[in-house]
Amino acid sequence: MRIEYDRDTCIGMFQCVAEWDGFERDSDAGKAVLVDGEERDEDLFVREVPEDAELDAKFAARSCPVDAIEVYDDDGERLIP
């Protein structure tokens, strides 16, 4: 499973941070940070989700009020949103 995070879309509600420790708060920027995320494009970060964290990652994506987080299965099918 992979997670993609669009930092530009993020509005800094930090609900993802409360749901999964794969996100951290960047109070200075007013945005979340995807821990160990690889920058694929300007403000688009991607990382593989450990198997034991998949449920929390899904909750983090679902909690985002602006859909800045997407989750994909191993076949590339979008699961969330």
From TrEMBL:
Task: Give the originating organism.
Answer: Halosimplex pelagicum
Q: Which UniProt keywords apply?
A: Electron transport, Iron, Iron-sulfur, Metal-binding, Transport
GO MF entries: iron-sulfur cluster binding; metal ion binding
Q: Could you tell me what this protein is called?
A: Ferredoxin
Q: Which PANTHER family match?
A: FERREDOXIN
Matching InterPro entries? Fe-S_cluster_ET
Which classification does the entry list for the species?
Answer: Archaea, Methanobacteriati, Methanobacteriota, Stenosarchaea group, Halobacteria
